[in-house]
Amino acid sequence: MGHVLVMGGAPGFGGAALLACQSAARLGAGKVSLATAPEHIVASLVRCPEVMAHGIRGGAEAAELPNNADVIVVGPGLGQAAWGQAVLQSALQADKPLVVDADGLNLLARQWPDVRRDNWILTPHPGEAARLLNCSVADIQSDRPAAAQALQRARGGVVILKGAGSLIAGPTGLVVCPYGNPGMASGGMGDVLSGMLGALMAQRGDVEFSAWLGAMVHALAADRAAEEAGERGLLASDLAFYARKLINP
Ligand SMILES: NC(=O)C1=CN([C@@H]2O[C@H](COP(=O)(O)OP(=O)(O)OC[C@H]3O[C@@H](n4cnc5c(N)ncnc54)[C@H](OP(=O)(O)O)[C@@H]3O)[C@@H](O)[C@H]2O)[C@@H](O)CC1
Ligand SMILES: Nc1ncnc2c1ncn2[C@@H]1O[C@H](COP(=O)(O)OP(=O)(O)O)[C@@H](O)[C@H]1O
């Protein structure tokens, strides 16, 4: 149910956006579209033909796609160059619920310092949170609850401050995710979370509940995967199977 549009995958980072698409599809999004650099289209279709992949050369092409989506996930592999800026601008202009991750957050910090929304989930790791709050990573880590709540107050919506014991800060308060393991420190794990959040928002609508549920399912799926085959060598794409089982009890 629901149509998720993933916007990302600058040259060299195509995998990040595709991981987000696959996890959105596995978490029950009825339709998943991908707006990515044209060079990633063939690989995307081979890997995941269920996803409708659109090659985007620049801002004008990116502007049309958000109209058909229920939720936009922007940031995985976005890069911070002109292409990524134009794509993020299109996502922000559309009046749609958003998940902003990775370079989407870095660009928000750099170029949209005052934008706040109620209908978005921001998913910073400590490095991205430090950029958004204009402080050091040590500052963030020394009081993670305060950092998550400060970011939520400044930017609105819901903030998931990732890491061991991810924190979900929303309008009604702060929740700690008790799941997850060190095997998750591998490339693409955050991209998978952003796709899951997009799918849950497209189905549930409620921003805070989707953030809470997505963070829990993501981390618990990683725990189930690690129980079966160990933490070392855990891949981001391994999570989809376990996450799907968790949401189909
Ligand atoms: N297959 C693909 O296509 C993949 C593509 N990907 C895409 O690549 C893009 C760039 O992502 P990235 O990981 O290269 O840069 P980013 O995370 O901004 O790090 C920059 C600096 O931040 C810091 N930092 C990082 N993590 C931290 C932490 N937990 N806690 C504290 N600090 C932390 C760290 O600083 P350091 O620790 O080195 O001092 C680092 O040097 C992005 O769009 C992403 O989606 C990836 O998802 C992988 C799979
Ligand atoms: N030691 C850990 N315990 C629990 N979760 C972790 C741990 N290390 C990483 N994670 C989780 O893995 C994910 C990593 O995301 P991120 O830092 O954005 O990486 P990437 O950019 O490679 O996708 C986050 O959801 C984070 O909470």
TrEMBL record:
EC number: 4.2.1.136
InterPro entries named in the record: Carbohydrate_kinase_pred_CS, CARKD, Ribokinase-like
Keywords of this entry: ATP-binding, Lyase, NAD, NADP, Nucleotide-binding
Pfam families linked: Carb_kinase
Residue numbers binding AMP: K162, G163, A164, G165, S166, G190
Keyword check for Cell membrane: no
Record PROSITE patterns: YJEF_C_2 (PS01050), YJEF_C_3 (PS51383)
Cofactor(s) listed in the protein's UniProt record: Mg(2+)
EC class (word): lyase
Source organism superkingdom: Bacteria
Residues in YjeF C-terminal domain copies: 1-249
Catalytic reaction equation(s): (6S)-NADHX + ADP = AMP + phosphate + NADH + H(+); (6S)-NADPHX + ADP = AMP + phosphate + NADPH + H(+)
Segments passing through the bilayer: none
Residues reported to bind (6S)-NADPHX: A16, G77, H125, D191
PANTHER family: ATP-DEPENDENT (S)-NAD(P)H-HYDRATE DEHYDRATASE, ATP-DEPENDENT (S)-NAD(P)H-HYDRATE DEHYDRATASE FAMILY MEMBER
Summary of subunit composition and partner proteins: Homotetramer.
UniProt family annotation: Belongs to the NnrD/CARKD family.
UniProt function note: Catalyzes the dehydration of the S-form of NAD(P)HX at the expense of ADP, which is converted to AMP. Together with NAD(P)HX epimerase, which catalyzes the epimerization of the S- and R-forms, the enzyme allows the repair of both epimers of NAD(P)HX, a damaged form of NAD(P)H that is a result of enzymatic or heat-dependent hydration.
Protein known as: ADP-dependent (S)-NAD(P)H-hydrate dehydratase
Organism of provenance: Vreelandella olivaria
